[in-house]
């Protein structure tokens, strides 16, 4: 099946549209940039529901938010590496079976797609198919 496609989500509507368009193919869900500061790990977990293990929470440059997310069982985080505690957090994440990414991974931004329209949902299906075929990042 290949690598899971990554979609940037900000709402349950976006999450659900991505799941529908993926038709059962594996997906990962990337939070908005710096979402840990305004949504929190618990908020992102609530947004994703049962899909929390496939979430990637962007913690920006805040190691405290990353630590909170790890305590809540996050499996993947984005965290800027330019601070002294980064290696320790990276070690903690590894021990917990989680991953810390130093930059945001490429993702399909659902905020730019009219998901309330059939044409928008069809466009999302095409984007996911292109991504799965390795023709876009």
Give the mean pLDDT.
Answer: 92
Distance between the termini: 16 Å
The overall strand count is: 6
What Rg, in angstroms, do the CA atoms define? 15 Å
What spatial form do the alpha-carbon principal axes imply?
Answer: elongated
Instruction: List the strand order in the largest sheet.
Output: 5-4-3-2-1-6
Q: Runs with pLDDT <50, length 5+?
A: none
Structural class: alpha/beta
Fraction of residues in H or I helices: 40-55%
Q: Encode the helix/strand succession as letters.
A: EHEHHEHEHEEH
What can be said about the biggest beta sheet?
6 strands, parallel
Q: What fraction of the residues are assigned to beta strands by DSSP?
A: 5-15%
Instruction: Count helical runs.
Output: 6
SSE topology sketch:
Blueprint: E1 5-8, H1 12-22, E2 27-30, H2 35-38, H3 40-48, E3 55-58, H4 63-71, E4 76-78, H5 86-95, E5 99-101, E6 108-109, H6 118-132
Parallel strand pairs: 1-2, 1-6, 2-3, 3-4, 4-5
Helix pairs in contact: 1-6, 4-5
Features of this protein?
137 residues; alpha/beta; elongated; single chain; 15% strand; 6 helices; 6 strands
């Amino acid at each position: 099946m290949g690598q899971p496609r990554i979609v940037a989500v900000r709402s349950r509507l976006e999450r659900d549209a991505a799941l529908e368009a993926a038709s059962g193919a594996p997906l990962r869900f990337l939070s908005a940039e710096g979402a840990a500061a305004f949504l929190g790990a618990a908020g992102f977990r609530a947004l994703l529901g049962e899909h929390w293990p496939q979430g990637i929470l962007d913690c920006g440059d805040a190691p405290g938010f990353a630590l909170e997310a790890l305590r809540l069982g996050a499996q993947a985080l984005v965290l800027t590496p330019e601070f002294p505690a980064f290696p320790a957090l990276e070690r903690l994440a590894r021990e917990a079976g989680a991953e810390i990414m130093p930059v945001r991974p490429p993702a399909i931004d659902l905020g730019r797609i009219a998901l309330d329209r059939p044409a928008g949902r069809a466009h999302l299906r095409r984007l996911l198919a292109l991504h799965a075929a390795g023709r876009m990042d």
